[in-house]
Amino acid sequence: MNKPLRVALVGHGFMGAAHSQAWRVAPRFFDLPLQPQMELLVGRDAERTQDAARKWGWAGSATGWREAVTREDIDVVDIVTPGASHAEIAIAALDAGKHVLCEKPLANTVEEARAMADAAARAQTRGVQAMVGFTYRRLPATTHARNLVASGAIGTVRQVRAVYLQDWLVDEDSPLTWRLQQDKAGSGVLGDLGAHAIDLAQYITGVPLAEVSGTLATLVHTRPVPDAEQRGTGLGGGAGAAGTRGPVTVDDVALFTGRFEDGVLGSFEASRMATGRKNAFRLEISGSLGAISFDLEDLNFLGFMDYTLPPDRQGFTRIMVTEPEHPYLSAWWPAGHSLGYEHGFVHQAKDFVEAIAAGTAPAPSFADGLQVQEVLDAVARSAAKSSVWLPVR
Ligand code: SOE
């Protein structure tokens, strides 16, 4: 039996379920160098946290995150709370010598993200690791896309198009959850879905964004305040308290263009108002020798176009990314059998455990998370200036 790696998870909403499943499943499918043990689940409400702990298989539960940070028998603190508490918990955990996995976006502000990256750098010198949860990097198709681009399969990257669309805010009476409150979530769709688009575009191209020009819109300005009992994902659904509406303080739609460090332009669109689009994250990268396209709603496939073929044979092919030769897949089902959304989280847990065991810095690091935060902040600052808007007449 490998040495145990004792995990505490802080938060038990939607991401709590995804991370719990990942910690449970990762050691069952992958031969890990350390054995994750699900020790402690932390939430605010004792009864609900206990119920969640029982349901997902955590050994114990607690109502204060400090228990996770101070307990000697905890090695990893996994943070899946709303962004407002990431910095405080992560810095305390790193300073206490715990490895930290933190959900995206890393923080609500650049200042918080910088303090977290500094704490992670300090911790690294003591062999303590920190990683931010940009989970979509860990899907076989996106990792394969990155490998293809790095191998030169599409030549020199010439253009990037990233679109991440959901529609759960189309209903004007969708409740005012934490995701719609700036003090809890930092920003709206920009930080929630835009952060994924930024990270994945930079990850697959291997080139950071250098400058951006953006615009944001809030289209429904008040929403029903949920009653205190409302639980769940923060994604709407469920009733708000009858009659009482409160202000939405974040963006519903975010659009921006970006210039990568090599001069390539990218267009980015993130929306919670895209009627009919449920979790439509599409990324297309055009190169001098070909192109790739990824679609989260069709995640077992990767679009690949070989521009070196004779014109009569050109076109996007759908690579079925389900073979043991593809990233992560040899641990799963026989060839041709597909994976889903949750597998990204399992692969994330696996990669994190391996980095901890090897004593190597995992990616995406908190420094990478800080850089994404800087891009988000630059988009918001650009949007606030509105300086590029010219009247048509
Ligand atoms: C909600 O918009 C959300 O759950 C995001 O917070 C996640 O990061 C994304 O994976 C799916 O959508």
Strand arrangement within the widest β-sheet reads: 8-11-12-7-13-14-15-16
Arithmetic mean of pLDDT: 96
- Bin the helical content: 25-40%
- Can you count the beta strands? 16
What's the oligomerization state?
A: single chain
Which hetero ligands occur in this complex?
Answer: alpha-L-sorbopyranose
How would you explain this protein's 3D organization?
The protein folds into 2 domains: 3-136, Rossmann fold, CATH 3.40.50; 137-361 and 372-391, Dihydrodipicolinate Reductase, domain 2. The chain is 32% helix and 26% strand. The chain contains 10 helices and 16 strands. Helix 4 (86-95) links the parallel strand 4 and strand 5. Helix 4 (86-95) packs parallel to helix 5 (110-124) and helix 5 runs antiparallel to helix 10 (366-385). Alpha-L-sorbopyranose binds at residues 14, 166, 192-193, 235, 279. It comes from Arthrobacter zhaoxinii. Residues 144-292 form the GFO/IDH/MocA-like oxidoreductase domain. Keywords: NAD, Oxidoreductase. InterPro entries: Gfo/Idh/MocA-like_OxRdtase_N (IPR000683), Gfo/Idh/MocA_oxidrdct_glycsds (IPR050463), GFO_IDH_MocA-like_dom (IPR055170), NAD(P)-bd_dom_sf (IPR036291).
Structure summarized in a few sentences:
By secondary structure, the chain is of the alpha/beta class.
Topology:
Blueprint: E1 4-10, H1 14-29, E2 35-42, H2 46-56, E3 60-62, H3 65-70, E4 76-79, H4 86-95, E5 99-103, H5 110-124, E6 130-133, H6 140-150, E7 157-165, H7 182-185, H8 189-205, E8 209-217, E9 222-226, E10 240-247, E11 253-260, E12 265-271, E13 280-287, E14 290-295, E15 301-306, E16 316-320, H9 343-358, H10 366-385
Parallel strand pairs: 1-2, 1-4, 2-3, 4-5, 5-6, 7-12
Antiparallel strand pairs: 7-13, 8-11, 9-10, 11-12, 13-14, 14-15, 15-16
Helix pairs in contact: 1-9, 4-5, 5-10, 6-8, 8-10
Bound molecules: alpha-L-sorbopyranose.
